[in-house]
């Protein structure tokens, strides 16, 4: 059974036709990327999957159950880190656990287990404005992971980072999620990033967005810097570039 | 270089201020202006010291009225601002009222309160509440609605209830704006209490001020002005202190 199955989702904001008959599948332990131009409606689709927006047509099935406009099932990381400036990093990543009813002590115990893995050790008591952009993104990712880790929606998590930090974060994500059993739906408009990280890529058209093409990425894992210059990688990139 | 410039920045106004005081002192010493109109600064300081016990008694009353009124306004402001923020109908109903009421000069209705509530502490406190309530409410309201929708959506999507949303996101986000409202109304609170006392009463700096004014004890009037100013400054400082303590993410990491 698919982790997420989006069938025929259509969404209009007034006269602005944003999503047109979008169908997407995410399987267990897969890393699936949605690649699309800016303003096409990628974030809108995530808002629909997260249950924050109601589609005009179509359904969102999560593990076979209808979750259309129901929140709280999947975890969702936005383009911006959206950390709370008034809470330190430890308190920030604990927010979802506390909201689910854990005591503060329990939540902190659980969260602290991941600080090393997420490269945040030593910064538990720092406020978000004392961290670098990359660290803030990792903290937001940890918070997302702690909320619900079987299905995660990541909306351009590295969009605001410089090229070098971005490259490091991508490697790190591959490393981390090799061991964590999560199914991930990822948004980007960076073709290299999409190929490097994914098992499958959906390419969106300009608005109104629909799925223009679908690619399986069969580049073997583990992937590293050499992957970026391999022939397989370049062929994949050529195929995608032809679409634009 | 920079340090030198800093010192310069401090010294120039001090020297200028001292010169002004000196000129003032001379003007009243050689009686260019009669002392009952402009007493010399040294005379004022002397009066301030000799009448200090009496002034303190009155200052205590005024400060009490101001603080009680201030606290009541904070409580009211919180209730009203949060209900306006969370219930759109309440916002629509009350918002225009709050804005219009801002334009009424409170001094003009002070005599009315004397008629309604007599000459005790109550009318003074009511005036303090009236002058403090609106700036606090408006700033709190502005702070509460300043939160990004995306952030609210995110915390909502994590299953936060409305109360949790306020506790975790909205209220902390509103603090900077709330405190700037508090600082504005802090000075208003002392002013409000004093004006209330002008209208009538037994104790308080405003009452004392009226009394010494009638006997043309201008030096005493100045002494009262100094005390009122000091009171306002003290309340402001206290609020700044609490502000710094309650927002460690802005003012440093000491918890
Ligand atoms: N709540 C809303 N009300 C009205 N229009 C909206 C709303 N949300 C998004 N839109 C519009 O829908 C279109 C798609 O927006 P969306 O944020 O989904 O794009 P995106 O693909 O995520 O773009 P980017 O890559 O720049 O983040 C935009 O034109 C946007 O202005
Ligand atoms: Mg987007």
How would you characterize this protein structure?
- The complex is a heterodimer of chains A (244) and B (255).
- By secondary structure, chain A is an alpha/beta fold.
- Chain A has helices at residues 42-49, 89-99, 104-112, 133-147, 163-179, 191-197, 231-241; strands spanning 4-13, 16-26, 31-35, 57-62, 65-66, 75-77, 151-155, 183-188, 200-204, 211-216.
- Chain A has a 6-stranded mixed β-sheet, sandwiched between helices. A 4-stranded antiparallel β-sheet of chain A has the order 2-1-4-5, covered by helices on one side.
- In chain A, helix 2 (89-99) packs parallel to helix 4 and helix 6 crosses helix 7.
- Chain A is globular, with a radius of gyration of 18 Å.
- Chain A starts with a strand and ends with a helix.
- Chain B is mostly helical and 255 residues long.
- Chain B folds into 2 domains: 1-33; 40-251, MetI-like fold.
- Helix content of chain B is 82%, strand content 0%.
- Chain B contains 11 helices and no strands.
- Chain B has helices at 2-29, 41-50, 52-86, 88-101, 110-117, 122-144, 149-157, 162-199, 205-214, 218-246, 248-251.
- In chain B, helix 6 runs antiparallel to helix 8 (162-199), helix 7 packs across helix 8 and helix 9 runs antiparallel to helix 10 (218-246).
- In chain B, 34% of the residues are buried.
- Classes of the chains: A alpha/beta (244), B mainly alpha (255).
- Chain A binds chain B through residues 47, 50-52, 71-72, 76, 78, 80, 82, 84-88, 95-96, 99-100, 125-130, 147, and chain B through 148, 150-151, 153-160, 164, 168-169, 172-173, 175, 247-249, 253.
- The complex binds adenosine-5'-triphosphate and magnesium ion.
How would you sum up this structure in a few lines?
The complex is a heterodimer of chains A (244) and B (255). Chain A is an alpha/beta fold and 244 residues long.
